[in-house]
Amino acid sequence: MALAVRHQSTYKQPATGVNPAYDEALEVIRAYSEQKAHEATLAHTELQKAQDAGADSSTLRALKKAWFDLRVESRINDGEVLWNARNGRFDLTEPVYEHLKQNEWQGRPLEILMQRLLQMFVLPDMLDPRFVGTPESQLNLQLARGVVEPGSVVDPSSAKERPGIELMTFHDEPRLHTIVMVDLDEPCEAEQTFREQFHWIVSNVSASKMQNTADLDKGTELLAYVPPHPAHGTPMHRYVVAVLEQPEDGQQRLDSAQVSRDMNMRDFVTEHSLRVVGLSFFRAEWNESVDDVYRDVLKQAAPRYGPITMPPKNVGPDGRMKYAYENR
Asked: Which among 179, 183, 155 has a CA at the least distance from the CA of 167?
């Protein structure tokens, strides 16, 4: 993930005076950029006047967008800007870099994420796709062995500690989020099916476009982290991490809530008026490290699942072979 900080540019301006057509193109770009920069200055003045006059929020949003778009236009053809973006150097204090970063996320990375969320039935198993829509923020999960590609299979031991969270949002102001990790494939013996199991909930985690590494220690842990523990004999488990924006555009705190490991994600999101802004997930299946989690963390014997073994039809309750006529 490209960091949202200012970088020293390595761009070198191509030589002029060699190709007249190139020099003329540069002049056209320069004139266009100057014109848009002038229009952006006027738009910013208008925005300030509206703020001073106490204009309503919808008017201010429209004026800010007009200024933002003009600032982008004034530099979108700048060779140095494009060079920096191609090399992962995004100065998000500049609208043009924010625009390019957002376009980068909404291209191939978002396409792959949505494809895997739907193909592996994370949606709708966890939440209705119509409710989720398209995640607006890029979520990267950092496990012991590096950044996790959405949907990839990992060794359960690599998630022994809580994951690091990188959230690339595109908001100027810090917003509060609730981070949830849930297993969608916990076996439920009573109902002979699979259910959700919550592994972790931490609320009041702040993030903005200039603060994309979540400081989890400053959040409010509502449910302590439990490492993945896919039981022996169960299919591959899907572990989903969801970043949920809290109410009032992320300004309302969530300091307490009635939570349990067996609750339902749909109910939790609805009850607390949370909005999904970031999603990612990984998959894991049993290996010997899982038994350590049951013993050391859950303080219980590791379960074993598997197909029910049926006795052969030609063997009686006493274990003796039946005669041929008894098999009918």
From this structure: 179
**d(C-alpha 278, C-alpha 267), whole Å:** 18
Per DSSP, what are the bridge partners of residue 217? none
**What strands, in cross-sheet order, belong to the sheet with 193-207?**
220-223, 193-207, 175-188, 237-245, 275-284
Residue 181 and residue 184: Cα distance in Å, rounded? 10
CA geometry: angle 221, 222, 226, nearest 5 deg: 80
State the pTM of this model: 0.85
Strand order in the sheet with 146-148: 146-148, 138-143, 164-168
Which tens digit of pLDDT belongs to each residue from 122-148? 999 999 999 999 999 999 999 998 999
Here the tokens at position 132 are 């989720």
Going by C-alpha positions, the residue among 300, 295, 104, 94 that lies closest to residue 210 is 94
Closest by CA to 114, choosing from 125, 129, 101, 128, is: 129
